[in-house]
Each structure stands twice: as structure tokens, then as C-alpha cells.
Amino acid sequence: MDHQKAQAARLREWNTTMIINKTAIPDINWWIAKFRANIPAQLIQIPPQNTVTTDAAPSGWGSTLEKEQEMIAMAHGTWNGRQAKLSSNNREIKAITQGLRSFAKTLKNLRIQSLAIRSDNSTAVLDIRKWRASTSLIKEIKQVHQTIEKLGIQIQITHLPGVKNEIADALSRLSRAGDYKLKEEIFSTVHLLTCQCCMMAFPRD
What we know:
Helices cover 43% and strands 20% of the residues. The protein has helices at residues 2-12, 25-37, 81-84, 88-102, 104-109, 122-130, 138-151, 166-172, 184-192; strands at residues 50-56, 60-67, 70-78, 114-119, 154-159, 198-202.
């Protein structure tokens, strides 16, 4: 539906009517369901209590959960055949959804109300923040927001330079088959943290 609106605006500007085709029906039904649910929204922005950092590679995704730079948990998974063929932007956005889902139980147990999300993909950050994307990405953007709503949390998403995203990057490249290990310098950094880290691996879905 967003694509059709943008196309109509380009051709006839915004002050006009348009006829939408059947591909917009799922979007319309989604908005109708949102209005009917009438779920209250927190207008006051709560400072983030924890931070989720994600990354995606051609083979899989990785994510970390931290509180004040103290590692709480790490998770990673591999893409199935269909997911591996997605564009890099699609995979990066999907990695955020996977990261949130993998830490859902922990976030609920910690009673987290606000979460910082960091990604080294600027397209993912901008699209999620603005709630708008190209036709090829809108499905993944919706999944992120639906996951956030299910968790009942606020988010603040920011761009993290790739050179500072070492741990999530390493996790995203782990393979479920054969031998693998984190880079020694990354393992040493995690080992020095005064916490008990939980590593979770997820099968292809």
C-alpha cells in the first residue's frame, strides 16, 4: 500500500484520490486490526534499560544483549535456503527480529520497558525508525514492529559502525555444522566481563 501511495503522489501529487489494487488488502486489514485492538501507547520516552546489537551474514545472524556494557546473553542462528537468497538489507532487518525473539523470555523476566537496538545497516535503522520502506522490505519491517508490540516495549534504534560490531558479526558467521570458534580477542573481551553469559543457537525457520 505504501508503494502505491508513493506512486500516486509522484504522478498526481498528494491532494488527489487513488484506486488501490488487491495487493493492498493485507495492509488495510492489518491497520483495521490495529484500530480495533486500541492498545494504549506510552507517550513518554523511557530511557533504554538494555541494548540489543545485531548483525547478519550470508550464512546466518548474530545478536547480543547487554546492560550498561555488561553482556547478558548471546544468540545466533543460520538462514534457510530461502532466507539466504534474500538481499543483505532484508537479512539485516530479519536479524533484528530474530534477536528480539531470541531474548524475549529474558526481556520479560527482567521487566524491560525500553530497549536500545543497534545495527550496522543504515537502511535497516532508517526504515524501522521511520516505519517506511521499499516494497521488498516492508514485510520485514512489519515483523520487527509486531515483535516489539508483542513484547510491550519501546525501542530506540541507532546505527553502529561495522568496526564496532565485532561480537554480533562473529556470531552471525558461526556455522551449525563443523568446528567453529569466536575470534580469540572477542572471546577474551567477553571472558573479562563479570557476568554469566548465555549462548543460544537457533535452527533454521
